[in-house]
Design a protein that fits this description.
Chain A: Keywords: 4Fe-4S, Cell membrane, Electron transport, Iron, Iron-sulfur, Membrane, Metal-binding, Repeat, Translocase, Transport. Chain A: It is a peripheral membrane protein. Chain A: Part of a membrane-bound complex that couples electron transfer with translocation of ions across the membrane. The complex is a heterodimer of chains A (about 450) and B (about 350). Chain A is about 30% helix and about 20% strand. Chain A has about 450 residues and is of the alpha/beta class. Chain A has a 6-stranded mixed β-sheet, covered by helices on one side. In chain A, strands 2-8-7-4 form a 4-stranded antiparallel β-sheet, with no helix packed on it. Chain A has a 4-stranded parallel β-sheet with strand order 11-10-9-12, with helices on both faces. In chain A, α1 crosses α4 and α11 packs across α13. Chain B folds into 2 domains: about 160 residues, no CATH class; about 110 residues, no CATH class. In chain B, α1 packs antiparallel against α2 and α1 packs antiparallel against α8. Chain B is mostly helical. In chain B, about 55% of the residues lie in helices and about 0% in strands. Classes of the chains: A alpha/beta (about 450), B mainly alpha (about 350). Chains A and B meet through α8, β15, β16, α12 and α13 of A and α1 of B. The complex binds iron/sulfur cluster (2 copies).
Chain lengths: ~450, ~350
């Protein structure tokens, strides 16, 4: 209830789902076994797919370039293991679409040492060189967005980046990867921040952490290197604080104008695991081969935080950790914004932050929906201050244009808070996702007509 | 070997786990003490009236669902709320056949023709009561005294009036504090009002029990606190200003708050989610309209009570409040825009 909304250190509205992190947040990151075959789809990130530069039958070394960036908004892919390229063929992805992919069969008993590349020195490199280095390392937003990081870091002409915000919020229930990374990889994080400050020209960095990870905040505070302008800001726990807009408002009290990026208010936000990856890879000129993933949920036996090679098939992962016979739903990402997996033959990709396994009895969603009773719970939850009730009704009438023009549909970022609280169990986010897609399509068509 | 097929669903994959049905059930619970007090103070009369109103509402809801070949919606509790509220807003010795008609009208005209739960523009119980008021102006303003000695053993003659007949009233009939003040200039003590020692509609007499029900629902986040606060505050301020202006002519603001149906209306009727606005500012405006109108009708209108009409009027404009008063969307300037 918004009785006391005077708190400065936060954003408006939002929700408090059960955190469900206690089962994995004390478990140190463990190395996951290598699968016999790695399957790497090319379209792992937002933007153009990577372009394959190897051929079938070729032997590759761990860390070797397998595919180069397919354009500016794209990143290369590196071999997560040493092995032989068995096949290049279409592979399924989580979206249901097929994508070109590489089947890489691992050598059974090699040392799996990683190939070194051209190191980048944070003290002497120019911002452009750092951005290039980040792209060469194949780095995308590891929080789940999988947007190429070098594009995000590029400050547009005429804009200035004042503050770099490192996102250690991890507001999705169940997930504990960022938490463990902050506790275990402080050196990489601070090195990464050094690169990021240089690349963006920001004068200071703030690491935003929710108060349920006070130990991580204390840990990082203790190890801040001499002379690095970094501070740790602990924020009250609230979903969806990890969203860029909410985080900027919570830390700095500024609102990002509708339809704009954080740079509009002089801010660049980077996920903490992405930062650690930059700090780990750039000094060696290496490419990303693995990432930390929380595997949890009521259906998992060996819950934990694991470093897993990119391209590891999901089926292999689940077989290794052991899952309940009765699993009925598997999500990639958190329970609020993650995507349900329809097919276990997809692979772990760079954007996979968590794997959640639920059995039938853990799914509390009720199939029964009621009409909207205008209780206002969704209005009180929406962090963007939209009116999901009205939007939901309009969606039913397919009044998409009105949704966009009068009710700011396009500002909805699908956080799911409205659906989470709705007592009538109306699938609001599902409606909005669809409506947004239709509005975008109509706009594109309109543009085409104008251009034709 | 792992299963081949998985269920897929749209995010979010977890939910708060509170259902509309559960909220409605809690509203019923919050109303029960009011019902008990009503029976305690008005005896069998109130029991019969409340039961009949509820029975008629539920029956109508069930019948209409069957008629349109839909699954019955009786178990979402909303028809029970309508019935209880109707019963509580009627005079305790109101004829049962009229009560029954009211229950049918509330569901059929107040809710069903709009499309059922969630689509009604007005509070169904108030629609029913407004129709009854128009159809039976005498019966609905004939009050029954509270705490009669024989209230648990005898039922007033009027209650069992034959259908389509005008009721006969016993010699004793009470005046409500509001009508006593308005028409005879007699005032009632605050204590009597707060603890329901007075005459009035079956469920409106004990302000304290009503307020407790509201506090329960607000504490459980099942009711907007803004509506009752806005209604009571605006009524208090306006009647307070009048009282300061001339305390001979106008009753005290405390009397205004505690008497008549204001408490019941502010807590349980104006707060009907479906027929009230949705944004915080909209709720304030809506509540203030009800509070101010109630006092205006009470002081200057021909009736001694004005809560019902005020709420119905505010219900009617609530969709417009919603389309004019919107939240300021994150990252935008405030946009108040006529629809
Ligand atoms: S939470 Fe659901 S029932 Fe309540 S107003 Fe929003 S959409 Fe309607
Ligand atoms: S999904 Fe969209 S409408 Fe729903 S709460 Fe999040 S931002 Fe608001």
């Amino acid at each position: 209830m918004a009785f006391f909304n005077f708190h400065k250190n936060t954003f408006k509205h939002g929700i408090h789902p059960p955190e469900s992190k206690e089962e994995t947040n004390k478990l140190p990151i463990k190395q996951f076994p290598f699968p016999p075959v790695i399957i790497l789809p090319m379209g792992q990130h937002i933007g153009a797919p990577s372009q394959i530069v190897v051929r079938e039958g070729q032997e590759v070394h761990r860390g070797q370039l397998l595919a180069k960036a397919g354009g500016y908004v794209s990143v290369p892919l590196h071999a997560p293991v040493s092995g032989t390229i068995r096949k290049i063929a279409n592979v399924p992805t989580i979206s249901g679409k097929m994508s070109q992919g590489i089947f890489l069969e691992a050598f059974p008993s090699s040392t799996q040492e990683v190939l070194e590349g051209e190191p980048i020195d944070p003290d002497t490199a120019t911002p452009e060189e750092i951005l290039q280095g980040i792209q060469n390392a194949g780095i995308v937003g590891l929080g789940g967005a999988a947007f190429p990081t070098h594009v995000k870091l590029k400050v547009p002409d005429g804009k200035k980046c004042e503050t770099l915000i490192i996102n250690g919020i991890e507001c999705e229930p169940y997930l504990t990867t960022d938490h463990r990374v902050m506790l275990e990889q402080e050196t990489d994080i601070f090195t990464g921040i050094k690169y990021l400050l240089k690349a963006t020209g920001a004068r200071k960095a703030i690491i935003g952490i929710e108060s349920n990870k006070q130990d991580a905040a204390n840990h990082l505070n203790k190890y801040i290197p001499e002379g690095l302008p970094v501070s740790v800001q602990v924020l009250p726990v609230k979903y969806p604080q990890g969203a860029e807009k909410m985080l900027v408002t919570a830390t700095l009290g500024k609102e990002i104008p509708s339809g704009k990026l954080p740079i509009e208010v002089g801010v660049v936000v980077v996920n903490v695991a992405t930062t650690a990856e930059i700090g780990r890879l750039l000094p060696h000129g290496q490419g990303i081969q693995e990432r930390v993933i929380t595997i949890t949920g009521p259906g998992v036996r060996k819950k934990g935080n694991y470093t897993i090679p990119i391209g590891t098939p999901l089926r292999f992962v689940l077989e290794q950790v052991g899952v309940d016979e009765e699993i009925s739903e598997v999500y990639m990402g958190g329970p609020m914004m993650g995507v349900a997996v329809s097919n276990l033959d997809i692979s772990i990709v760079k954007g996979t932050s968590g794997i959640l396994v639920f059995t039938k009895k853990d799914i509390k969603r009720s199939p029964k929906t009621y009409p909207c009773i205008k209780c206002g719970a969704c209005v009180d939850a929406c962090p963007i201050l939209l009116n999901p009730s009205k939007l939901g009704i309009l969606a039913k009438f397919e009044a998409y244009d009105e949704m966009a023009s009068n009710y700011n549909l396009m500002d909805c970022f699908e956080c799911g808070s409205c659906s989470y609280v709705c007592p009538s169990h109306i699938p609001l986010v599902q409606y909005f996702r669809l409506s947004k897609r239709i509005v975008r399509k109509r706009e594109a068509e309109k543009k085409e007509k104008v251009n034709a | 070997m792992l299963k081949k097929t998985l269920d897929i669903s749209s995010s979010p994959h977890i939910v708060k786990g509170r259902s509309t049905e559960y909220i409605m059930k809690n509203v019923v619970w919050a109303l029960l003490p009011v019902v008990f007090f009503s029976i305690y103070s008005f005896g069998l009369n109130a029991l019969l009236v409340i039961f009949t109103a509820t029975f008629a509402s539920v029956l109508t809801e069930h019948f209409l669902c069957k008629l349109s070949k839909k699954e019955t919606t009786v178990n979402d509790y909303s028809a029970i709320i309508t019935g209880l509220l109707l019963g509580l807003s009627l005079p305790p010795s109101f004829p049962l056949w009229m009560t029954f008609v009211g229950g049918v009208i509330g569901i059929a005209l107040g809710k069903y023709i709009f499309g059922g739960l969630g689509y009604n523009v007005f509070n169904p119980a108030l629609v029913a009561r407004a129709v009854l008021q128009a159809a039976f102006p005498v019966a609905i303003t004939t009050w029954h005294p509270a705490f009669l000695a024989d209230r648990f053993t005898t039922v007033s003659e009027s209650v069992f009036t034959f259908p389509f007949m005008e009721p006969h009233y016993d010699a004793i009939s009470g005046a409500t504090p509001l009508s006593a003040f308005k028409f005879d200039g007699v005032s009632t003590s605050t204590m009597e009002l707060a603890f329901g020692q007075v005459s009035g509609s079956a469920g409106e007499t004990c302000a304290i029990i009503i307020a407790l029900g509201g506090i329960y629902l607000i504490a459980r986040n099942m009711m907007s606190w803004r509506i009752p606060v806005a209604v009571l505050l605006s009524a208090f301020l306006l009647s307070g200003a009048l009282y300061i202006f001339n305390n001979e002519l106008y009753p005290s603001p405390v009397f205004m708050l505690l008497s008549g149906g204001l408490m019941l209306g502010a807590v349980f009727m104006a707060t009907d989610m479906v027929s009230s606005p949705i944004t915080p500012l909209g709720l304030w405006v809506y509540g203030a309209i009800i509070g101010i109108l109630t006092i205006v009708i009470r002081v200057w209108g021909g009736l001694s009570e004005g809560v019902m009409y005020s709420i119905l009027l505010a219900n009617a404009i609530s969709p417009h409040i919603d389309s004019v008063i919107k939240n300021r969307v994150y990252g935008t300037k405030r946009k108040i825009k006529a629809a």
